[in-house]
Protein backbone atom coordinates (compact mmCIF):
# COMPACT_ATOMS: atom_id res chain seq x y z
CA UNK A 1 0.00 0.00 0.00
CA UNK A 2 1.42 3.39 -0.97
CA UNK A 3 2.05 6.07 1.63
CA UNK A 4 -0.73 8.14 0.05
CA UNK A 5 -3.21 5.28 0.32
CA UNK A 6 -2.13 4.58 3.92
CA UNK A 7 -2.67 8.23 4.73
CA UNK A 8 -6.07 8.09 3.11
CA UNK A 9 -7.11 5.01 5.09
CA UNK A 10 -5.83 6.53 8.34
CA UNK A 11 -7.67 9.75 7.62
CA UNK A 12 -10.84 7.79 6.93
CA UNK A 13 -10.52 5.88 10.20
CA UNK A 14 -9.88 9.06 12.21
CA UNK A 15 -12.71 10.79 10.41
CA UNK A 16 -15.12 7.93 11.09
CA UNK A 17 -14.11 7.84 14.76
CA UNK A 18 -14.51 11.60 15.06
CA UNK A 19 -17.89 11.42 13.39
CA UNK A 20 -18.93 8.64 15.76
CA UNK A 21 -17.85 10.62 18.83
CA UNK A 22 -19.60 13.69 17.51
CA UNK A 23 -22.73 11.62 16.96
CA UNK A 24 -22.61 10.29 20.52
CA UNK A 25 -22.09 13.79 21.89
CA UNK A 26 -24.99 15.11 19.82
CA UNK A 27 -27.25 12.25 20.95
CA UNK A 28 -26.30 12.89 24.59
CA UNK A 29 -27.06 16.61 24.29
CA UNK A 30 -30.32 15.81 22.51
CA UNK A 31 -31.47 13.38 25.20
CA UNK A 32 -30.53 15.68 28.08
CA UNK A 33 -32.06 18.66 26.30
CA UNK A 34 -35.37 16.80 25.95
CA UNK A 35 -35.29 15.82 29.61
CA UNK A 36 -34.67 19.39 30.73
CA UNK A 37 -37.48 20.80 28.54
CA UNK A 38 -40.13 18.77 30.36
CA UNK A 39 -42.31 20.55 32.96
CA UNK A 40 -40.48 20.45 36.29
CA UNK A 41 -42.54 21.22 39.41
CA UNK A 42 -39.34 21.25 41.50
CA UNK A 43 -37.55 23.85 39.38
CA UNK A 44 -38.07 26.59 41.97
CA UNK A 45 -37.27 24.44 45.01
CA UNK A 46 -34.32 26.01 46.90
CA UNK A 47 -32.12 22.91 47.04
CA UNK A 48 -28.94 23.50 49.02
CA UNK A 49 -30.13 26.88 50.30
CA UNK A 50 -31.80 25.93 53.58
CA UNK A 51 -29.45 26.79 56.42
CA UNK A 52 -29.49 26.52 60.18
CA UNK A 53 -27.38 27.80 63.03
CA UNK A 54 -23.80 26.65 62.50
CA UNK A 55 -22.39 24.72 65.46
CA UNK A 56 -19.19 23.00 64.30
CA UNK A 57 -17.26 20.58 66.49
CA UNK A 58 -13.76 19.13 66.42
CA UNK A 59 -13.63 15.39 67.01
CA UNK A 60 -11.29 13.63 69.40
CA UNK A 61 -8.97 12.79 66.49
CA UNK A 62 -8.87 16.38 65.23
CA UNK A 63 -11.45 16.49 62.41
CA UNK A 64 -13.53 19.65 62.03
CA UNK A 65 -17.17 18.62 61.46
CA UNK A 66 -19.74 20.99 59.99
CA UNK A 67 -22.94 20.84 62.07
CA UNK A 68 -26.15 22.84 61.72
CA UNK A 69 -29.00 23.17 64.21
CA UNK A 70 -32.47 24.08 63.00
CA UNK A 71 -35.96 24.37 64.44
CA UNK A 72 -37.19 25.43 67.90
CA UNK A 73 -34.70 24.97 70.74
CA UNK A 74 -37.47 24.05 73.19
CA UNK A 75 -38.82 21.14 71.11
CA UNK A 76 -39.27 17.97 73.20
CA UNK A 77 -37.33 15.85 70.71
CA UNK A 78 -34.23 16.47 68.63
CA UNK A 79 -33.96 14.71 65.26
CA UNK A 80 -30.39 13.96 64.15
CA UNK A 81 -29.86 13.32 60.43
CA UNK A 82 -26.91 11.25 59.14
CA UNK A 83 -26.41 11.43 55.37
CA UNK A 84 -25.14 8.83 52.92
CA UNK A 85 -21.93 8.08 51.03
CA UNK A 86 -20.80 10.87 48.64
CA UNK A 87 -23.67 13.15 49.76
CA UNK A 88 -23.94 15.83 52.46
CA UNK A 89 -26.45 17.21 54.93
CA UNK A 90 -28.34 19.03 52.14
CA UNK A 91 -29.58 15.63 50.95
CA UNK A 92 -32.18 15.95 53.75
CA UNK A 93 -33.71 19.00 52.05
CA UNK A 94 -37.35 17.88 52.12
CA UNK A 95 -37.09 16.50 55.64
CA UNK A 96 -35.57 19.73 56.96
CA UNK A 97 -38.15 21.82 55.09
CA UNK A 98 -41.13 19.88 56.46
CA UNK A 99 -39.97 19.18 60.05
CA UNK A 100 -38.07 22.34 61.03
CA UNK A 101 -41.16 24.15 62.35
CA UNK A 102 -41.99 21.41 64.85
CA UNK A 103 -38.78 19.62 65.86
CA UNK A 104 -35.26 20.61 66.81
CA UNK A 105 -33.03 19.30 64.02
CA UNK A 106 -29.32 18.53 64.04
CA UNK A 107 -27.76 17.94 60.62
CA UNK A 108 -24.07 17.26 60.06
CA UNK A 109 -21.68 16.53 57.24
CA UNK A 110 -19.84 13.29 57.89
CA UNK A 111 -16.05 13.55 57.92
CA UNK A 112 -14.53 14.26 54.50
CA UNK A 113 -17.97 15.03 53.06
CA UNK A 114 -19.67 18.35 52.39
CA UNK A 115 -18.28 21.19 54.51
CA UNK A 116 -16.53 18.92 56.99
CA UNK A 117 -12.76 18.54 56.79
CA UNK A 118 -10.65 15.61 55.67
CA UNK A 119 -9.31 13.27 58.32
CA UNK A 120 -5.61 13.79 59.11
CA UNK A 121 -5.29 10.25 60.49
CA UNK A 122 -6.73 8.49 57.45
CA UNK A 123 -9.47 6.86 59.56
CA UNK A 124 -12.40 6.42 57.17
CA UNK A 125 -14.00 3.49 58.96
CA UNK A 126 -17.67 3.06 59.80
CA UNK A 127 -16.68 2.60 63.46
CA UNK A 128 -15.05 6.05 63.42
CA UNK A 129 -18.25 7.51 61.96
CA UNK A 130 -20.13 5.97 64.90
CA UNK A 131 -17.72 7.68 67.29
CA UNK A 132 -18.20 10.96 65.42
CA UNK A 133 -21.96 10.65 65.87
CA UNK A 134 -21.48 10.05 69.60
CA UNK A 135 -19.46 13.27 69.81
CA UNK A 136 -22.13 15.20 67.88
CA UNK A 137 -24.73 13.95 70.38
CA UNK A 138 -22.55 14.92 73.34
CA UNK A 139 -22.02 18.42 71.95
CA UNK A 140 -25.48 19.29 70.65
CA UNK A 141 -28.15 16.89 71.91
CA UNK A 142 -28.65 17.33 75.67
CA UNK A 143 -32.04 15.62 75.75
CA UNK A 144 -33.89 12.76 74.04
CA UNK A 145 -33.44 12.32 70.31
CA UNK A 146 -34.34 10.28 67.27
CA UNK A 147 -31.62 9.26 64.79
CA UNK A 148 -32.31 9.16 61.05
CA UNK A 149 -29.71 7.62 58.75
CA UNK A 150 -29.59 7.10 54.99
CA UNK A 151 -27.29 4.47 53.46
CA UNK A 152 -23.85 5.06 55.06
CA UNK A 153 -25.65 7.22 57.63
CA UNK A 154 -27.68 4.19 58.67
CA UNK A 155 -24.44 2.25 59.05
CA UNK A 156 -23.14 5.11 61.21
CA UNK A 157 -26.10 4.62 63.56
CA UNK A 158 -25.41 0.87 63.70
CA UNK A 159 -21.79 1.61 64.58
CA UNK A 160 -23.01 3.92 67.36
CA UNK A 161 -25.18 1.08 68.68
CA UNK A 162 -22.21 -1.28 68.57
CA UNK A 163 -19.71 1.04 70.25
CA UNK A 164 -21.97 3.16 72.49
CA UNK A 165 -24.97 0.97 73.38
CA UNK A 166 -25.59 2.85 76.64
CA UNK A 167 -26.93 5.81 74.64
CA UNK A 168 -29.98 3.90 73.45
CA UNK A 169 -33.39 3.92 75.14
CA UNK A 170 -32.51 6.79 77.53
CA UNK A 171 -31.00 9.30 75.06
CA UNK A 172 -31.83 7.71 71.72
CA UNK A 173 -35.60 7.16 71.79
CA UNK A 174 -36.06 6.10 68.16
CA UNK A 175 -34.22 5.17 64.97
CA UNK A 176 -35.04 5.48 61.26
CA UNK A 177 -32.89 3.38 58.93
CA UNK A 178 -33.39 4.41 55.30
CA UNK A 179 -31.97 2.56 52.28
CA UNK A 180 -29.17 0.96 54.25
CA UNK A 181 -27.58 -2.38 55.11
CA UNK A 182 -26.25 -4.23 58.13
CA UNK A 183 -23.60 -5.93 55.98
CA UNK A 184 -22.66 -8.14 53.02
CA UNK A 185 -22.59 -5.32 50.48
CA UNK A 186 -19.64 -7.07 48.87
CA UNK A 187 -22.03 -9.86 47.84
CA UNK A 188 -24.41 -7.64 45.86
CA UNK A 189 -25.05 -8.65 42.26
CA UNK A 190 -26.09 -5.10 41.29
CA UNK A 191 -28.56 -6.70 38.93
CA UNK A 192 -25.75 -8.26 36.88
CA UNK A 193 -25.24 -11.91 35.91
CA UNK A 194 -23.47 -13.80 38.70
CA UNK A 195 -20.19 -14.27 36.83
CA UNK A 196 -20.02 -10.57 35.88
CA UNK A 197 -20.88 -9.48 39.42
CA UNK A 198 -18.23 -11.78 40.89
CA UNK A 199 -15.62 -10.35 38.54
CA UNK A 200 -16.69 -6.79 39.36
CA UNK A 201 -16.31 -7.37 43.10
CA UNK A 202 -12.93 -8.99 42.52
CA UNK A 203 -11.45 -6.10 40.55
CA UNK A 204 -13.53 -3.33 42.13
CA UNK A 205 -11.40 -2.57 45.23
CA UNK A 206 -8.18 -2.34 43.20
CA UNK A 207 -9.88 -0.18 40.57
CA UNK A 208 -11.32 2.19 43.18
CA UNK A 209 -7.94 2.42 44.92
CA UNK A 210 -6.27 3.27 41.61
CA UNK A 211 -8.83 6.01 40.98
CA UNK A 212 -8.12 7.38 44.44
CA UNK A 213 -4.39 7.61 43.73
CA UNK A 214 -5.13 9.71 40.66
CA UNK A 215 -7.86 11.65 42.43
CA UNK A 216 -7.01 15.16 41.24
CA UNK A 217 -6.90 14.13 37.59
CA UNK A 218 -10.07 12.06 37.91
CA UNK A 219 -11.86 14.97 39.57
CA UNK A 220 -11.08 17.22 36.61
CA UNK A 221 -12.55 14.59 34.33
CA UNK A 222 -15.65 14.34 36.50
CA UNK A 223 -16.21 18.07 36.23
CA UNK A 224 -16.05 17.82 32.45
CA UNK A 225 -18.37 14.79 32.39
CA UNK A 226 -21.34 16.48 34.04
CA UNK A 227 -23.87 15.33 31.42
CA UNK A 228 -22.82 11.68 31.67
CA UNK A 229 -23.03 11.87 35.47
CA UNK A 230 -26.50 13.40 35.18
CA UNK A 231 -27.73 10.46 33.12
CA UNK A 232 -26.09 7.91 35.43
CA UNK A 233 -27.60 9.44 38.59
CA UNK A 234 -30.99 9.67 36.92
CA UNK A 235 -30.88 6.03 35.84
CA UNK A 236 -29.44 4.39 38.95
CA UNK A 237 -30.47 6.73 41.78
CA UNK A 238 -34.18 6.88 41.06
CA UNK A 239 -36.69 4.10 40.53
CA UNK A 240 -39.00 6.08 38.26
CA UNK A 241 -36.28 7.80 36.26
CA UNK A 242 -38.59 8.83 33.43
CA UNK A 243 -40.58 11.08 35.75
CA UNK A 244 -38.00 12.31 38.25
CA UNK A 245 -37.38 16.05 38.36
CA UNK A 246 -34.22 17.04 36.44
CA UNK A 247 -33.65 19.69 39.11
CA UNK A 248 -33.51 16.98 41.76
CA UNK A 249 -31.13 14.91 39.61
CA UNK A 250 -28.87 17.96 39.12
CA UNK A 251 -28.91 18.56 42.88
CA UNK A 252 -27.81 14.99 43.66
CA UNK A 253 -25.23 14.96 40.87
CA UNK A 254 -23.66 18.15 42.19
CA UNK A 255 -23.30 16.66 45.69
CA UNK A 256 -21.64 13.54 44.31
CA UNK A 257 -19.41 15.48 41.92
CA UNK A 258 -18.10 17.74 44.69
CA UNK A 259 -17.10 14.73 46.82
CA UNK A 260 -13.40 14.19 45.99
CA UNK A 261 -12.49 10.93 44.29
CA UNK A 262 -9.93 10.28 47.03
CA UNK A 263 -12.73 10.37 49.62
CA UNK A 264 -14.85 7.98 47.57
CA UNK A 265 -11.90 5.59 47.38
CA UNK A 266 -11.06 5.90 51.09
CA UNK A 267 -14.57 5.00 52.29
CA UNK A 268 -15.29 2.26 49.75
CA UNK A 269 -13.48 -0.57 51.65
CA UNK A 270 -15.32 0.35 54.86
CA UNK A 271 -18.68 0.04 53.13
CA UNK A 272 -17.80 -3.31 51.59
CA UNK A 273 -16.58 -4.78 54.91
CA UNK A 274 -19.40 -3.31 57.03
CA UNK A 275 -21.06 -5.95 59.25
CA UNK A 276 -23.20 -4.76 62.16
CA UNK A 277 -26.05 -7.27 62.19
CA UNK A 278 -25.21 -8.30 65.76
CA UNK A 279 -25.33 -4.66 66.90
CA UNK A 280 -29.02 -4.48 66.01
CA UNK A 281 -29.83 -6.23 69.30
CA UNK A 282 -29.22 -2.85 70.94
CA UNK A 283 -32.34 -1.52 69.18
CA UNK A 284 -34.57 -4.01 71.02
CA UNK A 285 -37.16 -1.86 72.76
CA UNK A 286 -36.28 1.25 70.75
CA UNK A 287 -38.97 2.33 68.24
CA UNK A 288 -37.44 1.65 64.84
CA UNK A 289 -38.56 2.34 61.28
CA UNK A 290 -36.89 0.65 58.32
CA UNK A 291 -37.55 2.19 54.90
CA UNK A 292 -36.39 1.06 51.47
CA UNK A 293 -37.29 1.55 47.82
CA UNK A 294 -38.39 -1.62 46.04
CA UNK A 295 -36.02 -0.83 43.16
CA UNK A 296 -33.00 0.01 45.32
CA UNK A 297 -30.03 -1.75 43.68
CA UNK A 298 -27.34 -0.33 46.01
CA UNK A 299 -28.88 -1.55 49.27
CA UNK A 300 -31.63 -3.88 48.04
CA UNK A 301 -34.87 -4.57 49.93
CA UNK A 302 -33.52 -7.92 51.20
CA UNK A 303 -31.03 -5.98 53.32
CA UNK A 304 -33.78 -3.88 54.91
CA UNK A 305 -35.87 -6.98 55.48
CA UNK A 306 -32.93 -8.57 57.29
CA UNK A 307 -32.62 -5.48 59.51
CA UNK A 308 -36.36 -5.48 60.27
CA UNK A 309 -36.25 -9.19 61.11
CA UNK A 310 -33.40 -8.59 63.57
CA UNK A 311 -35.11 -5.67 65.35
CA UNK A 312 -38.23 -6.65 67.33
CA UNK A 313 -41.27 -4.50 66.52
CA UNK A 314 -39.50 -2.60 63.72
CA UNK A 315 -41.86 -1.17 61.12
CA UNK A 316 -40.77 -1.93 57.56
CA UNK A 317 -41.89 0.31 54.69
CA UNK A 318 -41.12 -0.73 51.11
CA UNK A 319 -41.83 2.05 48.63
CA UNK A 320 -42.89 1.00 45.10
CA UNK A 321 -41.09 2.34 42.01
CA UNK A 322 -38.38 3.90 44.18
CA UNK A 323 -34.62 3.43 44.31
CA UNK A 324 -31.79 4.40 46.67
CA UNK A 325 -32.56 8.12 47.09
CA UNK A 326 -36.00 7.65 48.58
CA UNK A 327 -35.82 10.80 50.74
CA UNK A 328 -35.59 12.85 47.55
CA UNK A 329 -37.66 10.68 45.23
CA UNK A 330 -40.59 10.02 47.57
CA UNK A 331 -40.21 12.66 50.31
CA UNK A 332 -43.87 12.54 51.31
CA UNK A 333 -43.77 8.82 52.07
CA UNK A 334 -40.46 9.10 53.90
CA UNK A 335 -41.59 12.11 55.92
CA UNK A 336 -44.82 10.37 56.93
CA UNK A 337 -42.82 7.37 58.15
CA UNK A 338 -40.47 9.66 60.12
CA UNK A 339 -43.43 11.48 61.70
CA UNK A 340 -45.03 8.17 62.71
CA UNK A 341 -41.74 7.09 64.29
CA UNK A 342 -41.42 10.42 66.13
CA UNK A 343 -44.89 9.90 67.63
CA UNK A 344 -43.91 6.43 68.77
CA UNK A 345 -40.67 7.74 70.25
CA UNK A 346 -42.60 10.44 72.13
CA UNK A 347 -45.03 7.85 73.49
CA UNK A 348 -47.97 9.28 71.57
CA UNK A 349 -48.92 5.91 70.03
Automatic annotation (TrEMBL):
<dbReference type="InterPro" id="IPR029058">
    <property type="entry name" value="AB_hydrolase_fold"/>
</dbReference>
<dbReference type="InterPro" id="IPR050266">
    <property type="entry name" value="AB_hydrolase_sf"/>
</dbReference>
<dbReference type="Pfam" id="PF00561">
    <property type="entry name" value="Abhydrolase_1"/>
</dbReference>
<dbReference type="GO" id="GO:0003824">
    <property type="term" value="F:catalytic activity"/>
</dbReference>
<dbReference type="InterPro" id="IPR000639">
    <property type="entry name" value="Epox_hydrolase-like"/>
</dbReference>
<feature type="domain" description="AB hydrolase-1">
    <location>
        <begin position="78"/>
        <end position="331"/>
    </location>
</feature>
<dbReference type="InterPro" id="IPR000073">
    <property type="entry name" value="AB_hydrolase_1"/>
</dbReference>
<protein>
    <submittedName>
        <fullName>Pimeloyl-ACP methyl ester carboxylesterase</fullName>
    </submittedName>
</protein>
